[in-house]
Structures are given as C-alpha cells and as structure tokens.
UniProtKB/TrEMBL annotation, chain A:
<feature type="transmembrane region" description="Helical">
    <location>
        <begin position="86"/>
        <end position="112"/>
    </location>
</feature>
<comment type="similarity">
    <text>Belongs to the binding-protein-dependent transport system permease family.</text>
</comment>
<keyword id="KW-0813">Transport</keyword>
<feature type="transmembrane region" description="Helical">
    <location>
        <begin position="225"/>
        <end position="252"/>
    </location>
</feature>
<feature type="transmembrane region" description="Helical">
    <location>
        <begin position="272"/>
        <end position="297"/>
    </location>
</feature>
<keyword id="KW-0472">Membrane</keyword>
<keyword id="KW-1133">Transmembrane helix</keyword>
UniProtKB/TrEMBL annotation, chain B:
<feature type="transmembrane region" description="Helical">
    <location>
        <begin position="12"/>
        <end position="32"/>
    </location>
</feature>
<comment type="similarity">
    <text>Belongs to the binding-protein-dependent transport system permease family.</text>
</comment>
<feature type="domain" description="ABC transmembrane type-1">
    <location>
        <begin position="72"/>
        <end position="265"/>
    </location>
</feature>
<feature type="transmembrane region" description="Helical">
    <location>
        <begin position="76"/>
        <end position="97"/>
    </location>
</feature>
<keyword id="KW-0472">Membrane</keyword>
<keyword id="KW-1133">Transmembrane helix</keyword>
<protein>
    <submittedName>
        <fullName>Multiple sugar transport system permease protein</fullName>
    </submittedName>
</protein>
UniProtKB/TrEMBL annotation, chain C:
<dbReference type="InterPro" id="IPR008995">
    <property type="entry name" value="Mo/tungstate-bd_C_term_dom"/>
</dbReference>
<dbReference type="InterPro" id="IPR040582">
    <property type="entry name" value="OB_MalK-like"/>
</dbReference>
<keyword id="KW-0813">Transport</keyword>
<dbReference type="InterPro" id="IPR015855">
    <property type="entry name" value="ABC_transpr_MalK-like"/>
</dbReference>
<keyword id="KW-0547">Nucleotide-binding</keyword>
<dbReference type="Pfam" id="PF00005">
    <property type="entry name" value="ABC_tran"/>
</dbReference>
<dbReference type="InterPro" id="IPR017871">
    <property type="entry name" value="ABC_transporter-like_CS"/>
</dbReference>
Length: 310, 280, 354
C-alpha cells in the first residue's frame, strides 16, 4: 500500500512544457502509422508516379534506351487494334463473372438460410474451394476441361460429344469465367448469408400477416435490406475480376487468339514477355483509370439503388 | 423466419443443393484421386471416379523433378512472415486511425486508402524496376515487403480500424487512469480484445500470400527460389505439355494441408471472413 | 487523501466554450456531487479533473500539486466509469490489481491489496471470474474495487449507477456511501439524478450550461435554492413556479392572489417568479391560513400520498398530499399554502429575493 503510493508520487514528475498530453499522443499516432504510411509511399505512391512517368517514354531494354516521347504511348493505346479485342474480352470476362458470381452467391445464401438439418456441412463444402490453392484449383479444372478430360468423359457417357473447351473461343471464355466463379463464390455467399441473417425476423412475420407470398417477401423485404451488402460485394467482385491473372496464365495463356486475353494478362505480356515497359506502363494507367471509374461510379449508384443503410 | 418446410420441399432443397455441390467438391476429389492413378488411367474412359489401381511413384517424381521441398518451404515461410508482418503493421495503423487524435489523421487515412483503389498489378512495372535497382530481383524480398507494407495490407488496416472504432472509449480511459501509456494500452488492452479481427486478417492475408502468382513469376527466375503456385506449373514434358499426374500430385500436396486446417477450424475461417466483409 | 482545488477552470473546443470558469474548493475527505441536466458540463469537468480532457484555462490542484499537465496516471486518482470499463479479457482479480502491476508493486503486495478490497466489497468468491460472468451489481463492485485497491488521493465517479435497475441503484447508493465513510477518501461524484445527489453528498454542486449555479449542503439547496434553476432541479416532483406581480393584497397571478412572505428584496408592482414545492400545499382544514381554490385536473393516488395536478389561475401546479382525495377533473378544492416555504425569485429567475 505504502509502496504503491510512493510510486504514484514518484511518477508525478512534470514533463517539459512542450510535451503536453496532446503532443505526446500525436507523436504516438505518427509512430503507429509510420510503417504503413512509409510502405504506401514507397510501394504505392512512388510506383504510381513512376508508372505515369514511364508511360511517357519509349523504353528499349535491349538497347538500354529510355527516350521521352510524350503522348506517343497513349496514341499507340488508341491505335492498338489488339487492345480493342483485349478490352472486349476483359468486359465480357468481368461482366460474366460478376453476374454469375452474384446470382449464384445469392441463390446459395438463400438455400443455406433455410432451416435444414446438416446445413452447416453444405456451407463448409460450398466454401471449401476458397481455401484450395488457386493454381491447384486451376490446374485440376484445366485437367477436367481437356478434350479427353473428365468432363467430356462424363458427357460421352450421356452420349454427348463435348467440345475442346479451352481451345475454342466461346467455350474458352466460358471456362475461365466458370472456374473463377466456383473458386470464389463461397466468399460472397458467406457475406450474403450474414446479411440475410441480419434481416429482422419481425419483418417477415409482419409480411406474412399482411399476406405477402414468399417471392414478394424476397423482392420487397429481403433484397432492399441486403442491398448495401450486394453493392459492396459487387464492387469487390468487379475490382477483383480485373485482377484475375493466374487462371488465364494457366488455362489458356490468353488464347485461342486473343479471346481470353484480359487487360492484366496483356499488360504482363507487353511488359514482361516483350519488354515493352513504356507501353506496359501505359496499360497500367489504363487499368488504374478503369478501376477508379468503376469504383467511383458504384459509390455514386449507391445513392440510387441502395434502399437502406444502417 | 419462414413457415416450417414441408417434407417434400425439404427433399427438393437437399436434392438441389447436392447437384449444386458437384462443381465445388468434385474437382478436389478428382485432383486427389487422379494423382494416385497410374498415368494410363487418368484419361481412361469411362472416367474412374474411384481409382482402380494405384501408382505412388508419381509423388516421388514431384520431388525428383524440382526442388519441391525447398519451394514448399519458400511459400510457407513467405506466407508466415507476411501474415505476421501484416498483423503488426495493420493493427498498429488501424489502432492509430481509430483511436488516436493526431494532426492530418483523416488526410493520411485517405492517402492510405488509395491502396485499396490501386491493384498491385498497376504498379508491378515500376516495382520490378525498383527491386531490380535494389538488387532484389530473384530474391523473396519483393514478395515479403510489398504485401506487408504496401497496397495488400491496406485492407487489413481498414478491417482493424473498423474493429478498433467499436472499442468502448471508457476502457482506454480506465487504462490511462490505471497508469498505462499509449503503447501499453495498445498492447495490453486493445490488441487482446482484437483477437477476432486479427484472426480474419491472418486468414485472408495467409491465403492471399499463399496464392500469389503474378508477383512470383515476375520477380523470381530460378527454381530454387520459386513458390508453390509457380512451381506447380513447371511440371512439363519436353514439348511444354503438362505432366498431368505429377502436376496433380503437386497440386494435392499444395492444397490438402490448407484444406485440412480449414476443416478443423472452419468456423473461424467462415466467420472471420464474413466478419471482415461485412465491415469492409 | 487531499484537497482538490479548481480555480477558474475553463474548457473550450475551438470557439465553442463549454465550461465558463468554475471555482471549487473540495476539502480533504469530502463527498462532493456534481449534478445538472445532460450537457451541463459535469462530466467534462470530472474528466478534466481525471486528466482525460485537457484544461483550456485555469488551475487544478490536487493536494499542493498543480496537475493541469499531468497524465491521469500521475494524478493519483481513481475513477469509476458509467459502463464500469472492466477489461473483458481479465479476471476480476487481474482487473483490480492491474493498476498496481503498472506501478511496480510486487505480486504479494498486489494480492494483499486485492484481497483487502475484495473483502470490503464482498467479491472474495468472484476473484477468478471474468466480467461477462458477473451481474450488473457485481460489475459495479469490481469497478469500485479497482478504484480502491490503489488507495488514491481522490475517487472520481462518473454516473456509476445509471446502468443499474432502480432497486439495485438504491442498494449501491448505500454501499458507496458506506465505503466513503470507511475510507474517508475525497470523492467527486457526477450524476444527473438529483435523488442520488441529495442522498449521498456532503455538498452538492449544481451545474448548468457550463456554470456553477449553486454550491451547498443538500438540504440548504433544497430549502434555500439560490435561483429558479436550482429550485426547479432539486426536488421531485419539481417546485411549482407561478409568474405574476406584487400587489398590496399579495402575489397576483392572473385572477388569483396568493399570500406573500416577508421579504426585503421586493417592491410593489415588481414582476416576480413565485415558487412553492408540491408538499407545501395543504388541504384547507387548517383554520387561520389563507385559502385559495383550485380546479382539479388529475388525481394520481400513490397509496402513501396523493399527487394532484391542479389549475391555479392560468398555471397548472402539482400538489402532494398525505390525505387520500376523492374528486374528479373539474372539481374545485380549497387549499392553503405554507407561507414559510415560499420562494421568491426575480422575474428572470436569476436571483432569490427572500
């Protein structure tokens, strides 16, 4: 008792007047964020500046020349006919992925929200591909989608001759979308399920007393109430879809032709396979602009389509 | 929530879910079973859902053709370092943004959030040049430093901040009265209470690092340095065609440990990620 | 244990001033209650004493030390929070010993102090539990235990009973009071509940809008409130106020004339506020008292007493009577007023006149 008191008194030293409580707290704040802030400056902001700087240059790695060319790379961007195809493929891939992913996730979430015995086991199984190594998952699908692979084997047992999935333009695109959807739909499913479980039961009870049929309950109560989650996950999913690389690299290498060459894959090819670092940087700027515009547009949309926000 | 389901609806729902499960579960099953089939059986018709004979030599080839143990170790230690590092960096930054008043806090937070808007693919070209100049190409440094301090950790920081915002202010005030300074409040009060948020950060950071593909193939060039995702694609024959059974065996070795951990701790995984997403 | 002295303490957030120069001398061992409506600045003032809010201007002394710029931990105070703020991840014993741990006390000493405090508060059997396993009253006791283990110079309580139900509040009120009698530590206690203030305080400080309205012993405040705000705040149901003017017959409000007590501060024709507490009305069975008639608006029988809302002239007033009263809305009753218990305030309510 006495010691504790003595200690308290001893610690009652005055700090120099400059180090007020507020100043000491500010210092602590800066120290706490320093690693993150330095990291962002070094690994995001400076590279972002550099990528813009590079995009204004013609960079020949073999000749070791780095020449300022102004908007030359951007003119090339507009004139690049392959890029048009690439952007088309990117749009189809992203749109297909988001639509399929969101609807399947919602369907699965509604199913998992039913009161059924053993539902937790289904939840675990639907979620399991999320934790399977991405490249492992892609390899086994690549194996299944071979001309003489498992899927066509099964189809043949039903008397159907399947296509060479990864070697035809339409089916190749469908394949990369589907492989990616099954890999990650479990994440959105879990988010939707949590949102569904957050809808107050009383609302459904009130709707049943009002005599609303099940589908109407879903459309008029469930959907509006989970719309913030739908918006949020759709942003994450779209931005994520623009970053899909491994699946394309492993399954199709962008082919056949350019049919599955999405922007990130094209960027990788230009910069790291053909060593066009200047043009690759220009493509990076384009990717950045697309992500920024999409994110911004969706935040704007939030005001119109999201009915409810907590 | 809903009226009791009739037995008929019940059966229909179970049936629907079982059909839907096929593309989620079958690939994993096919991967494991095909990896132990003899090469002659893997494309057999009709497809063998259950292997009829076994060939374990495939697994020894996984280790003969490439330094697979070394590659496994590379992936494991990189993922472990990145996970721990991200937890430290993001919990500190998240705590400061949520709980400490310091000048320009909001502006700095907005700058940090930029990291969410800039996929690492955008900055891969200059990052490569920077690490090239630093002599760190074909080392693991880019795969460790960038995720811990750069854009990938911003989401973790955001998750941690959202958690710390909900921490009652009176708890910290009580700690201040009890004689703790900022660092001790963080270490002894805030951090122990943030275990659920830290767990979700750990899970998604680990998975992100474990799955990293573009960065390794950009930064790494020798087989000794490769990480698993990259190594898996290297089992090819003289014509560049995949050696399917060996690839599948290596894929199984890559996927199974994480799957097993997931089955054991599936509640933490699912809830951890749901928790993150709701708030992110 | 120590005096606490506040000299012209001020607080502002930028241009917004919330505390406007508070002076207060708290004597060693005193139990002082800061009371006022929400937003009056009482919690801010307490948190400034604790060191959780910075002091914009003025001097705060604990004992002989000026503590304005000291961290809470260096002020030798302990605080009980409204939400108790128990550390959820620590046992009761760890919670209580936590501050000692950070002051370099050894294990044996911590144990001794924790057991001593637990003994006083009846927590001995709960030392290994976690806060989530405790009831509201038990948590409250742990919060107090955490404060007393350290034997600080000053205890600070920030609305500690507002999360408890009514019954438990009465019990804990008694316990806190008993604890103070036993330890005799200087205590500053914030509440918005005037009943708590009345029953617990040696002295009450009534705050309003960041200013001190009155400081005094509970019954002094009740019997001689310095202004209309204090008069209305202390006491439940509140004092009734009627506005009107002083005439030769007495106090005139609309068409009713009420008796006036002797007072030096009033002049004929002056507009004043006339205050009377509900229990100072009597049913007119006391011959010799001035009588007025009032119209019944509502009768609420409480069993032990009857609360009657009545219309007196233009004003609705509340009376509390020991008798049971029969009658309905619109009936007229004759009542008299206890002339010694009438409070007169200036027309703006700022000054007491009698």
């Amino acid at each position: 008792m006495a010691v504790a008191q003595e200690n308290a008194r001893a610690e009652g030293r005055s700090f120099s007047p400059f180090w007020t409580i507020a100043r000491r707290d500010s210092l602590a704040g800066f120290l706490f964020i320093a690693p993150q802030l330095v990291g962002i400056i070094a690994f995001v902001l400076i590279p972002l500046g550099l990528v813009f700087w590079y995009s204004l240059h013609e960079w020949n790695v073999l000749a070791n020349t780095f020449t300022y060319t102004g908007g030359q790379n951007y003119r090339m961007l507009i004139e690049d006919e392959s890029l048009l195809e690439v952007l088309g493929a990117t749009a189809i891939f992203s749109a297909g992925l988001v639509i399929l992913n969101m609807s399947l996730a919602l369907l699965l979430a509604v199913l998992l929200n039913q009161k059924l015995a053993g539902i937790a086991i289904f939840r675990t199984l639907f979620f399991s591909p999320v934790v399977v190594s991405l490249v492992a998952w892609t390899i086994v699908w690549g194996f299944l989608l071979q001309k003489n692979g498992g899927i066509n084997g099964m189809l043949l047992m039903l008397g159907i001759e399947g296509p060479n999935w990864l070697r035809e333009e339409t089916t190749a695109m469908i394949s990369v979308i589907v492989v990616q959807v099954f890999k990650n739909v479990g994440l959105n499913m879990i988010l939707f399920l949590a949102a569904l479980q957050g809808v107050p039961k009383e609302l459904y009870e009130a709707a049943r007393i009002d005599g609303a049929p099940a589908f109407k309950q879903f459309r008029r109560i469930t959907l509006p109430l989970i719309s913030p989650t739908i918006l949020l996950t759709s942003i994450i999913t779209i931005v994520g879809s623009l970053q899909v690389f491994a699946q394309i690299a492993v399954l199709t290498q962008g082919g056949p032709g350019l049919s599955t060459t999405v922007l990130v894959y094209y960027l990788y090819q230009q910069a790291f396979q053909f060593h066009f670092f200047g043009y690759g940087s220009t493509l990076s700027i384009l990717l950045f602009a697309i992500v920024a515009i999409l994110t911004f547009a969706q935040w704007q949309m939030r005001k119109r389509i999201v009915f409810y926000e907590s | 929530m809903k009226a009791e389901l009739s037995p008929r609806t019940r059966t229909a729902l179970y049936g629907l879910m079982c059909v839907l499960l096929i593309p989620f579960v079958f690939p994993t099953w096919w991967m494991v079973t095909s990896s132990i089939k003899p090469i002659s059986d893997i494309f057999a018709f009709p497809p063998q859902l259950i292997p009829q004979s076994y060939d374990w030599t495939t697994y020894s080839k996984v280790f003969e053709l490439q330094p697979f143990v070394r590659q496994y170790w590379n992936s494991a230690y990189i993922a472990a370092l990145v996970t721990v590092g991200t937890m430290v960096v993001s919990s500190m930054a998240g705590y400061a943004f949520a709980r400490i008043r310091f000048p320009y806090a909001n502006t700095i937070f907005m700058i940090v959030l930029l990291g969410l808007l800039i996929p690492s693919e955008v900055t891969i070209v200059p990052l490569f040049q920077m690490f090239l100049k630093a002599g760190m190409v074909n080392t693991h440094w880019p795969l460790i430093l960038v995720p811990i301090f750069g854009a990938p950790s911003v989401f973790a920081t955001f998750v941690m901040r959202q958690f710390f915002v909900t921490l009652p202010a009176e708890l910290e005030e009580a700690a201040r009265v009890d004689g703790l300074g900022r660092f001790k409040i963080f270490a002894k009060i805030a951090l122990p209470l943030a275990k659920p948020a830290l767990a979700s950060v750990a899970i998604f950071t680990f998975l992100h690092s474990w799955n990293l593909f573009l960065e390794p193939i950009v930064f790494l060039s020798s087989a000794e340095m490769f990480t698993l995702p990259q190594a898996l694609t290297q089992y090819t024959d003289a014509y560049g065609g995949p050696m399917w059974n060996i690839q599948l065996a290596a894929a199984t070795l890559t996927a199974l440990p994480v799957l097993i951990v997931f089955v054991i701790a599936q509640k933490q995984f699912v809830e951890g990620l749901a928790h993150t997403g709701l708030k992110g | 244990m120590a005096d606490v002295t506040l000299s012209d303490i001020r607080k502002s957030y930028g241009a917004l001033k919330t505390i406007h120069g508070v002076n207060l001398d708290i004597r060693d061992g005193e139990f002082v209650v800061l009371v006022g409506p929400s937003g009056c600045g009482k919690s801010t003032l307490l948190r400034m004493i604790a060191g959780l809010e910075t002091i914009t201007d003025g001097t705060l002394k604990i004992g002989d030390r000026r503590v304005n710029d000291l961290d809470p931990k260096d002020r030798d105070i302990a605080m009980v929070f409204q939400s108790y703020a128990l550390y959820p991840h620590m046992t009761v014993a760890t919670n209580m010993g936590f501050s000692l741990e950070h002051r370099g006390a050894n294990k044996a000493e911590i144990n001794e102090r924790v057991n001593w405090a637990a003994g006083i508060l009846g927590l001995t059997n709960l030392l290994d539990r976690y806060p989530r396993q405790l009831s509201g009253g038990q948590r409250q006791r742990v919060a107090m235990g955490r404060a007393i283990v350290r034997n600080p110079q000053v205890f600070l309580f920030d609305e500690p009973l507002s999360n408890l139900d009514a019954k438990l509040r009465v019990v804990m009120r008694g316990e806190i009071k008993a604890l103070h009698r036993r330890l005799k530590t200087t205590t500053i206690y914030v509440t918005h509940d005037q009943v708590e203030a009345m029953t617990m305080a040696d002295r009450i400080v009534v705050l309003n809008g960041g200013r001190v309205e009155q400081i005094g012993a509970p019954l002094d405040l009740y019997d001689r409130p310095a202004n209309q705000f204090v008069a209305g705040f202390i006491g439940s149901p509140s004092m009734n106020f009627l506005t009107g003017t002083i005439t030769e017959q007495g106090f005139q409000t609309s068409d009713v004339v009420l008796p006036l007590p002797a007072s030096k501060g009033t002049v004929m024709g002056q507009a004043i506020v006339y205050g009377i507490r509900p229990e100072h009305f009597r049913l007119n069975d006391h011959p010799g008292r001035a009588s007025v008639s009032a119209e019944i608006v509502l009768i609420e029988p409480m069993g032990s007493e009857t609360q009657v809302t009545m219309r007196l002239g233009d004003t609705q007033v509340i009376g509390v009577f020991r008798e049971r009263i029969s009658g309905t809305t619109g009936d007229i009753i004759n009542i008299s007023l206890d002339i010694d218990a009438i409070h007169l305030f200036s027309g703006d309510g700022a000054i007491r006149l009698n």
